[in-house]
Specification:
The complex is a heterodimer of chains A (281) and B (445). In chain A, helix 3 packs across helix 5 and helix 4 packs across helix 5. Chain A is mostly helical. Chain B is 36% helix and 39% strand. The longest helix of chain B is centred in the N-terminal third of the chain and has 30 residues. The chains are: A mainly alpha (281), B alpha+beta (445).
């Protein structure tokens, strides 16, 4: 079995798991929820094996490096990070319904990696600038942060849906989704977690840039957008801590923050020019 | 006058200002990612038209991140952070060092969580049990006699209240580091041909020459490729020369620079000249000479009766590596032409003579040179920020009081707790103490 087969299976696995989680949400069927969780876990293991195997294959090809070096590999890792973050959240809060708002992100990321236009799936050797251990630290920290923000965004949607349903006294979704205060609390904790990792991601990136070029900050579009994202979440946290913002406002900010993450991740690569050109080829 | 001062002070002490500044910094930063920075003036006229280009010029949008208004926003943020900290830190510090054994006992019953248990034990016995329950769960209690009762108090992490100020200070430390770097440092570059040395580099800002105070020698530059033709490594063998002596040598690659006396040399580019470096040694006389050779030209070694030249080139098995055909003549006549691969060394055997012949393509290495005395402050700031964020987000100041007093024929044991965040986790800790205490007091209730 090759890594691309395993990763292909993972894409399919997350698609089915997404469907099952959404079915659980709509039809309130406990059994589909259990199956969805189980399938997500199995798919996650297959994906982990796939990433490991890709790493091993790169050594066999004589250019061994961690599979974190181009757009394809970062998308696979993004999806992996979303799933492990979600699974831990599911265990901690003992709620499967969040899956309907989180696992689809993991699927979309894998699907985009597999079928997206212009995404090179080949294992390619590392150019000199990428030959650094900071690459691994930088990519891992950033994407754990991004994964948390993706889940926070999903939870933001969940909050707004639940709140809209309550306004309309719609009993269909009210019964199944967690209490608004609980969702609000999880969004807040998820943003805090993501913010810490994003900070670490920006810092590891700065250290890497300094060891490669002698400049820890050069206002490159990618750097600047990561800072804009950081500002958005820093603003969100201050609004909550000092001005008591919560509920819908924070839910919207979780969504806006993730849009900024998406722009930092893709928009900069495709629309602006700069150092992080890995996505444009 | 003091009123005016207070209004300016309270303006900078407000969190509202912080939110506004953060908002405007985010918006402003977007502009600089959309409009290209530091392009030549006519590029803006071409892309945006003369009017818009003039507008950009007026607002410094072409070098936005160094413009007066963007820097002002950063200064506002720094002032805001400083004044907010000065304003709030004394109160927080009071909470950190507060003697909680003086807490008003009437407030204890109103705290959440709190729990009252009755027992037939004496005051002292109940206090000892309570102390043991706290100790079992990792709480070291102090005690004081209060209003004919006994007050026990234990706390964890009072210092964690400072976490958020560590984060705010870390941003100021990073700013300070960046300022030190921009005032006392420089960024520049230099091209050094192989076998040459330089003591001067050129600033990025104004292309002014900057004297290093020592020489950097490029001994050798090597370029290697992957099988698919992508560059694999740029490597420069550098030496620092002071007073004609090599004091330090290092082979640098991208991501592994050379530092000496505050200056750091980064591998950044290279230049090819379509020329070759040939080193030739007469193995008998140990005479050695280095030649810069253009292909197709005959080179004469003065002092030795030797001439040679590069007469042809061909690919090798390795991608993007070449071998060269050498014509060679000495006092014994013309030798059979031989091939040598770029970067290799070979022995040329003649009647009674022997030469060592080495050839490599001649390059200049492009180095980026920086001096940044502020970078360590930036790194210290970054470390402080991460530590501060962890403390501010995940650790909390947790306090537990136990107030034991006589009530008619019974002893009342009031267990109260307080935390500044992460209430759920604290309630679990509190319940553990509570359960342990109930267990100990059960037989006497």
């Amino acid at each position: 079995m090759t890594s691309s087969q395993l990763l292909g299976i993972s894409t399919l696995g997350y698609l089915v798991a997404s469907a099952l989680y959404i079915a659980t949400l709509i039809f309130k069927t406990q059994k589909t929820g259990v199956v969805a969780s189980l399938l997500t876990l199995i798919t996650f293991l297959a994906q982990t094996a796939g990433i490991g195997l890709r790493w091993y294959e790169s050594y066999n090809m004589g250019m061994g490096h961690a599979p974190l070096s181009n757009m394809y590999e970062s998308l696979v890792f993004f999806s992996w990070a979303i799933v492990i973050f979600y699974l831990l959240l599911e265990m901690k809060f003992n709620n499967r319904l969040i899956g309907a708002f989180a696992i689809p992100f993991a699927f979309i990321s894998m699907a985009y990696a597999s079928f997206g236009k212009g995404i090179n799936q080949e294992i390619s050797p590392l150019i000199p600038a990428l030959q650094s251990n900071w690459l691994i630290a930088h990519v891992i920290t950033c994407f754990i942060g991004y994964a948390a923000f993706a889940v926070a965004c999903g939870l933001g949607f969940m909050y707004l849906m639940k709140s809209a349903a309550e306004d309309k006294a719609d009993t269909g979704l009210i019964g199944t989704l967690p209490n608004l205060r609980v969702i609000d609390d999880i969004i807040h904790k998820t943003i805090i977690f993501g913010f810490l990792w994003l900070s670490a991601g920006i810092i590891t990136g700065a250290i890497w840039a300094n060891s490669a070029w002698g400049t820890y900050w050069s206002w490159d579009p990618k750097e600047t957008w990561s800072l804009i994202t950081w500002f958005i979440y820093a603003g969100t946290l201050h609004a909550r801590f000092t001005r008591g913002w919560q509920g819908k406002r924070i839910a919207w900010l979780a969504i806006i923050g993730f849009l900024s993450v998406i722009f930092t991740y893709f928009g900069v690569n495709f629309l602006l020019s700069g150092l992080h050109s890995y996505g444009s080829s | 006058m003091s009123n005016q001062k207070n209004s300016i002070w309270s303006f900078f002490a407000s969190v509202k200002l912080a939110l506004f500044v953060i908002f405007f910094l985010a918006i402003a930063s977007v502009i600089g990612t959309v409009i290209p920075q530091n392009s030549p003036p006519d590029a803006y006229v071409k892309e945006f038209g003369a009017n818009l280009a003039r507008f950009f010029q007026i607002l410094d949008i072409t070098d936005m991140y160094n413009s007066w208004w963007f820097v002002s926003l950063l200064i506002m943020l720094a002032l805001n952070l400083t004044i907010c900290t000065i304003e709030r830190l004394p109160n927080v510090w009071r909470l950190v060092v507060l003697n909680n054994l003086e807490t008003d006992t009437d407030r204890l019953a109103k705290m959440r969580p709190s729990q009252e248990i009755h027992t037939t034990l004496t005051l002292e016995d109940a206090a000892a049990k309570a102390k043991a329950s706290l100790a079992e769960n990792g709480w070291q209690a102090k005690e004081a006699v209060r209003d004919s009762g006994i007050l026990l108090f234990a706390q964890k992490g009072p210092w964690t209240r400072l976490g958020v100020y560590v984060v705010h200070t870390s941003i100021l430390v990073i700013f300070a580091g960046a300022m030190i770097g921009s005032y006392f440092g420089y960024k520049g570059s230099v091209m050094i041909p192989e076998t040459r040395a330089t003591d001067t580099i050129y600033s990025f800002n104004n292309e002014e020459p900057i004297k290093l105070g020592f020489e950097v020698l490029c001994k050798r530059f090597t370029l290697s490729h992957y099988a698919n033709g992508a560059p694999k490594e740029f490597r420069s063998d550098l030496a620092i020369v002071e007073d004609g002596k090599e004091v330090l040598t290092k082979s640098i690659v991208v991501n592994d620079p050379l530092s000496y006396k505050g200056h750091t040399f980064y591998q950044s580019s290279y230049q090819s000249y379509k020329k070759f470096l040939v080193s030739l040694t007469d193995n008998q006389t140990k005479n050695a000479e280095l030649f810069l050779v253009e292909p197709g030209k005959e080179i004469k070694w003065q002092g030795e009766d030797v001439s040679f030249g590069i007469i042809n080139r061909d690919k090798t098995e390795t991608p993007l590596r070449f071998k060269y055909k050498i014509w060679f003549k000495d006092s014994t006549g013309v030798a059979e032409p031989f091939w040598i691969t770029d970067g290799d060394t070979t022995t040329v055997k003649r009647d009674g003579k022997e030469y060592t012949f080495a050839l490599k393509e001649f390059f200049a290495t492009g180095l980026q040179v920086t001096k940044d005395p502020g970078v360590w402050y930036v790194y210290i700031g970054c470390t402080l920020m991460l530590l501060g964020l962890m403390v501010a987000f995940f650790l909390s100041h947790r306090r537990i009081w136990v107030y034991i007093k006589r009530e008619e024929d019974k002893t009342s044991v009031l267990l109260s707790g307080n935390t500044n965040k992460n209430r759920l986790t604290f309630e679990k800790n509190f319940d553990a103490v509570n359960r342990s205490l109930e267990e100990k007091l059960k037989s006497h209730s």
